[in-house]
Amino acid sequence: MSKQSRPRVLIVAPSLAILGGQAVQAKRLLDQLAKEEAIEVSFLAINPRLPSFLSLLQRIKFVRTLVTSFAYLATLLLRVRRYDIIHIFSASYFSFVLAPTPALLISRLFGKRTLLNYHSGEAEDHLLRWHRTAIPILKLADVLVVPSNYLVDVFARFKLRAISIPNVVDMQRFVFRPRLSLRPIFLTNRNFEANYNVACALRAFSLIQQQFPEASMIVAGDGKQRAELTTMAQSLALNKLEFVGLVESGNMPQIYDAADIYLNSSVVDNMPLSIIEAFASGLPVVTTDAGGIPYFVTNEETALVVSKNDHRALAEAAIRLLEDPELAAGIIQTAHRECLKYDWPAVRALWLDLYQQLASRD
């Protein structure tokens, strides 16, 4: 294909100003696709920054949403017409209304091919509660892409066909350190929202410290439950617990390297990048069985998996890793091999082939 006939792809997604899995995944995909000669790729943020003289408006609650949405819509109208394929990242609920819905409608207005890349672990609840509006909007997309077979199955229950293309992890960014003797240094890296249930990890850590008083834990993230979680940490009299706040994606490899065991206590989830990044870094993972996690994590092979909302089981599994170096070593090695399937060389052809198929449709 000549340079002139390369499909022009516009990725519509959150920028890293909204720190979260979608923004990180969009940035990684954009960086990799920019190196490809077969396509031309660009980016449009759903959260555009206004010029300096208007940026003050984005600091005012409610006004921020209004002015940002207006700027986003205006940018869509100006830029969508220049591209062949509009690749739209999507979450659920109100975010679905504010960002992917306008992008799909405007893309249809200009007759563009659309790819909706849905990432939310709340898909089933979203489609149940909002089925009269969400499902017709989803059907506007030429292709629905999800990062896991879990969401393929969820969409199928609503008679929506989706294909799975895994999240991308840049393996070169993470230093794999096989931990031959685990230290009781723990890490959790999820936003402070109800779905991620960081409180459960704190309760588990409290039990761990009763047996290992020297244990420490790094808590990365931020969100609505920050005050609640810091108060809980004080009430549990947790020692050696460090809240480090939001950590930019580029700084996460050092955070993983500082810890020896990763804890994930979510109650609603899809395919958390943090677990795959822990695999890539050589951290054995203890996780709940929320949502799509059992679709890519195997108990006692790539991680230890416990039931949701069970902080005692989470603590017991973590202690088991500390007391059984052979089990931990096997999990570390198997998990590291598993995460190779999420490296760009393994995912690249899936995206490029899909873009070519969309571009060639009449």
List keywords for this structure.
2 domains, alpha/beta, Rossmann fold, six-stranded parallel sheet, single chain, 362 residues
Total domain units: 2
Tell me the β content: 15-25%
Instruction: Enter the CATH topology name of the largest domain.
Output: Rossmann fold
**Separation of termini?**
17 Å
How many strands in all?
A: 12
Radius of gyration: 21 Å
Contiguous uncertain segments of 5+ residues? none
Largest sheet: 6 strands, parallel
How do the helices and strands follow one another from N- to C-terminus?
A: EHEHHEHHEHHEHEEHEHEHEHEHEHHH
Shape: globular
Tally the helices: what do you get?
16
CATH architecture classification name of the largest domain: 3-Layer(aba) Sandwich
The level 1 CATH classification of the largest domain is Alpha Beta
Which structural category fits the helices and strands?
alpha/beta
Strand adjacency order, main sheet:
2-1-3-4-5-6
**Overall pLDDT:** 92
| Share of helix, binned | 40-55%
Description:
The chain has 362 residues and is α/β, with parallel strands linked by helices. It folds into two domains: 3-168 and 344-360, Rossmann fold (3-Layer(aba) Sandwich); 171-341, Rossmann fold. It contains 16 helices and twelve strands. The chain has helices spanning 21-33, 52-55, 63-79, 93-98, 100-109, 123-129, 131-138, 149-156, 198-211, 226-235, 252-258, 273-281, 293-296, 311-323, 325-338, 344-360; strands spanning 8-13, 40-45, 85-90, 113-118, 143-146, 163-164, 185-189, 216-220, 241-245, 261-264, 285-288, 304-306. The strands form two sheets. Strands 2-1-3-4-5-6 form a six-stranded parallel β-sheet, sandwiched between helices. Helix 6 crosses helix 7 (131-138) and helix 12 (273-281) packs across helix 15 (325-338). The two termini are 17 Å apart. The mean pLDDT is 92.
